[in-house]
Structure formats: C-alpha cells, structure tokens
Design a protein that fits this description.
This protein has 242 residues and is of the alpha/beta class. The protein is built from twelve helices and eleven strands. The protein has a single domain, classed as Alpha-Beta Barrel (TIM Barrel). β4 and β5 form a beta hairpin. The longest helix is centred in the N-terminal third of the chain and has 10 residues.
Length: 242
C-alpha cells in the first residue's frame, strides 16, 4: 500500500462498476481490484458526524442541516447506504490508501485531528478545491500530504490557454500544497510547465479513456490518476491486455 510515488491508481468514489459510488461495497471492490487509493468525499452533519457523500444534499435534504441518522435514512430510501468516516476507515485500514476530499470549509482541522487519532499520516492524503483549507491544514499539519484541486477549465479559458495556468496556479507555493490535483483537460491543454507548479507532482482526475490513461501513466509529471475505470487503469499501468 502506498500513497506517494509514480503510477498511483486512485479509485474515484471507489470502484463503481458494480457498486454505488462512495459506499462500502465500492471501496471493497477497489481493494479487490488492487487500486492504490480510494478517493471519496467528506461532509459533516448538523450533529457533527462525518459522512461519505459527494452531493451536499440527499434527495432534497441538505446534509449540513440534518442529523446523521436522518441523512442515512434518506439514503436508504433512495437505495444506497451512506457510510460514516469510521466505517470507511475500518474497511480500508491497512488495505488501501485514502484520498479524502473535503467538500466544505470550516472543519478541516477537526477532520484531520479525527483522522490522526485513528490512522497514520502516511495512510491518507487530503484534497480540496478551497485554497484556504489547504493553507490551514499545511500550517497545522505539515506532515499530512495535501493537494489543491483544479476544476475543469471553462470553454472560454480553453481559448486562452496561455493565461489559464498562471491564473489558476498563482499562489500554490504560498499554500504549501504537496501536489496539484487537476482535471485532465488541463494536461490536454499543456497547462503544466514545471515552473508553474514549482516541481509539484500532479494528480489528474477523472481519467477514463484508454488513450488518456496511457498518456498520464507515461507522463513524468503525473504521480496519480483518479479514475472510474480502475480495472482498465491497472491494466494500462501494468501492461496487461484488457
């Protein structure tokens, strides 16, 4: 099990070919396939419970305004089980690394303190679209690897690719991020000359096409690919036919 180094395969919300995303079944499937990490999304309920869920709502109910039991009940009514962070950690402990995306600001330090009471910092990384979250975490926990997420470039920005990298990557050095986790379109646009990312490793999301996987897994700047196609990504990396 590793969370650093070249050729990492990260299962996006688990392995979702046969399981609902961000569920224990999806995380178990990623472990069986041999992914290096699972990527998942963290939200906090009104009663302070950490749940694994991408959207800010379950149905029409805002997770932040509901108790944990209410949220999980709503999930079951929709046909899937929403795990707690503790349930996730119990399943993956010692079996696979964790890429935990913090979906909201305000409880970054509490989250990492919670994690460090249950696992070691070499077992997980933290990612966020919020620069302030990364800056705060690196100031408080320099030992924890953190990555700043970059969203898919807009159609307009694709017409001005020369301006896009410098605009989006300004301030990364000040954040003290350990890596940049960028939408794959940035790589396609040639948006990562080394001077702009200050030598930081790049994680790329969400890479599902064979040609894109082949490019990413042979690109020296890319440390990890985050993918919905875990089995295909592993085959490409390991040179197996699929």
């Amino acid at each position: 099990m590793r969370t650093t180094g070249p050729g990492l395969i990260v299962a996006h919300r688990g392995a979702t070919g046969t399981a609902y995303e961000n569920t224990i079944a999806a995380f178990e499937a990623a472990i069986r396939l041999g992914a290096d990490l699972v990527e998942c999304d963290l939200r906090r309920t009104a009663d302070g419970c950490y749940l694994i869920h991408h959207d800010l709502t379950v149905g029409r109910a805002a997770i932040a305004r509901c108790t944990s039991s209410e949220v999980r009940k709503k999930g079951r009514a929709l046909g899937y089980e929403i795990p707690t962070l503790d349930e996730l950690l119990e399943v993956i402990s010692g079996r696979i690394g964790l890429d935990l995306e913090l979906k909201e600001e305000g409880y970054e330090v509490a989250t990492v303190n919670y994690l460090l009471k249950r696992t070691s910092p070499d077992r997980f990384v933290i990612t966020s679209f919020h620069p302030g979250s990364i800056k705060t975490l690196k100031a408080c926990f320099p030992e924890v690897r953190c990555g700043i997420l970059l969203a898919k470039p807009s159609s307009r920005s694709r017409l001005r690719t020369a301006d896009e990298p410098s605009r989006r990557l300004t301030g990364i050095r000040q954040l003290k991020a350990d890596f940049v986790a960028a939408h794959w379109k940035h790589l396609q646009l040639g948006a990562f000359p080394g001077k702009l990312v200050h030598g930081l490793p790049i994680w790329v999301w969400t890479v599902n096409e064979r040609s894109a996987l082949e490019r990413c897994l042979t690109e020296k700047r890319v440390e990890a690919v985050i993918t919905d196609k875990v089995e295909l990504a592993l085959a490409v990396r390991d040179g197996d036919a699929l």
